[in-house]
Amino acid sequence: MIKISNSVSLQENEIEWQFIRSSGAGGQHINKVSTAAQIIFDINASSLPEFYKSALLKKADHRITKSGKVIIKCQASRSQDFNRQTALAQFIELVASVGIVQRKRVATKPTKGSQRRRVDAKKQKGATKVLRQNKDF
User: Fold this and answer.
1) Does the pLDDT of residue 8 top 80, yes or no?
2) Is 37 contained in some domain?
3) Which residue range or ranges hold the Prokaryotic-type class I peptide chain release factors domain (predicted)?
């Protein structure tokens, strides 16, 4: 069981793991060992609640494909196990992020003091610019 939040969890078999070769420098070891971990998760075929599915599909994230799959690749470490843990943490963070509903911002009026400070700053800048002017015509 993969716990996303207090009320949402996924089965282990809903996530497909692939282990591939890491890119970049590393010598002989990295060229023959598949240490990079890649998660492939199909949003539409998952057991996530509809709210999570729709929010994930609407989310503008490069890790979510147009076909509705989440692909997370981690190759930060030379250890396959560490890359697997990091990829899973990134996946959980991505899915949990859509479950947090942002509160709507309530517009407030600026205080008298903040308005006064803003106008005073503008007057000071204007006075500085007047001093810079060349008055010789």
Assistant:
1) yes
2) yes
3) 7-129
pTM beyond 0.90, yes or no: no
Alpha-carbon distance values, 2 to 40, 69, 72, 88 (Å) = 15, 18, 16, 9
Find all residues with CB under 8 Å of 59, minimum gap 6, and list them: 97, 98
Q: Which of these, 38, 47, 44, lies nearest to 12 by C-alpha position? A: 47
Phi-psi region for residue 24, left (φ > 0), alpha (ψ -120 to 50) or beta? left
Query: What CATH number should be reported for the domain holding residue 88?
Result: 3.30.160.20
Residue 59, token pair as written in the block? 């989310």
Count of the separate structural domains present in the chain: 1
* pLDDT score of 136: 75
Identify the domain containing residue 29 by its residue range.
2-97
